[in-house]
Amino acid sequence: MSSAPILALENLTMRFGGIVAVNALSFTAQRKQITALIGPNGAGKTTVFNCITGFYKPTSGVIRLTHDDGAQFEMQKLKDYNISKQAKVARTFQNIRLFPGMTALENLMVAQHNALMKASGLTFLGLLGVPSWRAAEQSAIDNAVFWLKRVGLLDRADDAAGNFAYGDQRRLEIARAMCTGPALLCLDEPAAGLNARESGALNELLLSIRSDHGTSILLIEHDMSVVMEISDRVVVMDYGVKIAEGTPREIRDDPKVIAAYLGTDEEEAAAVMEAEA
Amino acid sequence: MDYFAQQLINGLVLGSIYGLIAIGYTMVYGIVGMINFAHGDVFMIGGFIALISFLVLVSVGLTAVPVILLIVLLVSMAITALYGWTIERIAYRPLRHSFRLAPMLSAIGMSFVLTNFSQVSQGARVKPVPPIITGGYTLHEGDSGFVVQLSNVQIVVVITTIVLLGLFTWLVSRTRLGRDMRACEQDQTMAALLGVDVDRTISMTFVIGAALAAVAGMMYLLYYGLVDFFMGFVAGIKAFTAAVLGGIGSLPGAMLGGLAIGLIETFWSAYFSVEYKDVAAFSILIVVLIFMPTGLLGRPEVEKV
Question: Considering only CA atoms, which of A189, A193, A246 is closest in space to residue A221?
Fold first, then answer.
């Protein structure tokens, strides 16, 4: 197992015209841990995600991903479909992006494209119905069924994903991301719009993904109960730069973080905290 | 009544051919959102390749008709598919991220290229072939002496169409390639993020569309016994109309639209006037689109967030 962190951002900068959305950001996400990326609205969190998953070409900087076996990838150089195929990074979106016209099962099957592609011998063996392809198709279905069961949507496997309730769509999107067999799972506000019970189930799901499947997780989240409860480390951003990094407990007591969230300046926040203590 | 039955048979056969071409239009529109105006000419190319391979097989002394038909079918599908792949690769893919109209203009250009290429390489004259499949059945003989006939060619056209449609439906709904195609249709970026090579999937769409057009070209050759370099234009426009009528982007819609156009044309020619059959087909298209803007089976455009 490689000792390097699963993901390392080195001086990542993303400029849109005159606006610097992310400015020389560096942080690491440790292997088999849950790293939360938090910050006020507009801090540049989603931009970071978009750089990691190839939606944006960063203006400068390196995003280095290291697999367990030591294989390294520079994410900013990968072609779009290789982000999943080679680097094994999967993500979900703040505004859910399922394939609404396809069934839940089909959504999860598309996510297993790579495994099936190999088995179908670039389509043609598949068309002929070669046994090895049938076996691969079956194991893909088994895997999809496993994840549907895991997120509690098995009984709705054949319903169009677009007809699912909001919370169900969120869980289905995570299941789909997991079906790609990711080394790193990037979740953009997975708890947004969930009620307390759903959010508790989500915590449990994410913890089990980390410990049972050995997948590292990078998480953007506004819901502090989720962040505090499940993350191993927290990185705080504001105005495109990192303002703090540490364990949830350290972050909670950091005056800079409180200032960023409450809009006061640091001395004021520190004064409030001292007064409380 | 007999006359009606005969026209129904004729209309369904013609409609099958239109439907096969229409699927190519609707698939490409679904996945890349462009109208492939060169598709009618791909159909024409399919007809020519069927003709050429037929002549080659006959000249080497093959006489078993079913064997000839099967080989001709496979050869014309394969070579026309190659045309489809090449056209996408050189004329559309470089323009994919250009402005919206660019690939469409390129498609119109490609249509001229194919038409003129066939004219120059094969000559401008209509190419007849002797009937390959002969005979048929008399279904009913009326008192007035009118005979309802079902020729063997018509049976072959309809059966081939049904078999291919079944195969195609299976491909789209049950296989990995079909799932990838539908995923790309709905959200290309997301599909790419799940590891789907979008360019390759789009290529495959063109390949399948061209192969189906080749089948239509061969059926046309069998049914009418001729091909010419200009036949792609009118057939292409009709098939495009069929795709729009059925609801562009919808696969069953394309087939339904094809059958509808085929039937309208045939019945209009039979009961009113042959000269105005195209007017009838297009008028009905206009009427349908006024009352059902998304076509018979089309879904309303959903605004993506």
Answer: A189
